[in-house]
Amino acid sequence: MSLYEVHRDDLNRPWMVCEGAKIRILHDEREKFKPPSRDEAVHVSSKMSEWTVEDAPSGYERLIEKLNYQAPAHLLRMLRPRLPPAQNILDIGAGTGFLGAPLIEEGHTLDGLDFSRVMLSKAKERGYRQTFCASAEQLDMRDIIPSSFSYDVLISCGLYGDFVHPSWITHTLGVLRRDRESYVAIAGRSENLDNLDMYLENEGFRILAWDENIGHITSQGFEIPYVYLISIVAGGNR
Ligand SMILES: C[S@@+](CC[C@H](N)C(=O)[O-])C[C@H]1O[C@@H](n2cnc3c(N)ncnc32)[C@H](O)[C@@H]1O
User: Fold this and answer.
1) Ligand 1 mean position to 195 CA, how many Å?
2) CA of 135 to the centre of ligand 1 (A)
3) How confident is the model at residue 237 (pLDDT cuts 50, 70, 90)?
4) What are 176's strand-pairing partners?
5) 160 φ/ψ angles, rounded to the nearest 5 degrees
6) CA 91 / ligand 1 centre spacing (Å)
7) Assign residue 68 a region: left if phi > 0, alpha if psi is -120 to 50, beta otherwise?
8) Measured in angstroms, how far is the CA atom of residue 236 from the centroid of ligand 1?
9) What is the distance between the alpha carbons of residues 21 and 29, in angstroms, rounded to a whole number?
10) Is the sign of the CA dihedral 160, 172, 60, 187 positive or negative?
11) Neighbour count for residue 170 (Cβ, 10 Å)
12) Beta strands per DSSP E along the chain
């Protein structure tokens, strides 16, 4: 399938700028030709309209507590036994750094990418070394992340399949080191991540672990299933 076919729907949607990053509008019911206000921008970035820009990190943290957000813990449980010490890790859709914070305590170095600068400021407080304020939808992630930054591991939770089509991961893999094994660990809503393993296998990755488990529980008590995937590629295979 050509790139155009994969991203055709994205191309038909309007774009906007949120906190300096160019992003796609996610809500189809939005009035297409009315530019969104700054508050609506946060609605788009977080899908939670009641927050102001400044409120977003604390609003998000309150929400994930209410939703019993288990996805990061499940993903880390699967990743940890496979992770060599002191890895250089990029967290895509890092948000407030909830996923990476435990890895920092365990001696890894975390950088984060997210299109929300205020969410990233919380990740910085949690010890993220470098943050990149940009959309995860980049045709070449090297346009955003300088070549002086190379990673052993990519992690992402609650982004692919929820906000971003999983095929975009293939345009991010160029930030991984080429001289040794590298890992990709992703968690996201099951309903939209059917082909994630295929995208990674096509890029030479071997799927090490694939699980389906609760990601979070809605206020109505619905358990939302997430997919958890750990994959690896040997150095020089890309
Ligand atoms: C559900 S939160 C997950 C945050 C964190 N990974 C966690 O597990 O707590 C989704 C994050 O993705 C960010 N996001 C959504 N769409 C994005 C895009 N196209 N590019 C970059 N970040 C995006 C949002 O700003 C938000 O911080």
Assistant:
1) 20
2) 9
3) low
4) 151
5) -70, 135
6) 10
7) left
8) 30
9) 22
10) positive
11) 14
12) 15-18, 21-24, 88-92, 109-114, 130-133, 153-157, 182-189, 206-217, 223-233
**67-233: CATH topology:** Rossmann fold (3.40.50)
Q: Taking a C-beta distance cutoff of 8 angstroms, is the pair 223, 189 a contact?
A: no
- Residues framing ligand 1 (Cβ under 6 A): 23, 45-46, 72, 93-95, 98-99, 114-116, 119, 135-137, 157-159, 163-164
> Residue 120: pLDDT above 60?
yes
- Cα 152 to Cα 28, 58, 88, 110, 155, distances in angstroms: 37, 30, 5, 11, 10
Q: Where are the domains of the chain?
A: 3-65, 67-233
Task: Provide the 8-state DSSP code for 143.
Answer: G
Q: Give the model confidence (pLDDT) of 26-52 as tens digits.
A: 443 334 444 445 444 444 444 433 445
Helical residues (DSSP H) of 80-194, grouped into ranges: 101-105, 117-125
> pTM of the predicted model, to two decimals?
0.84
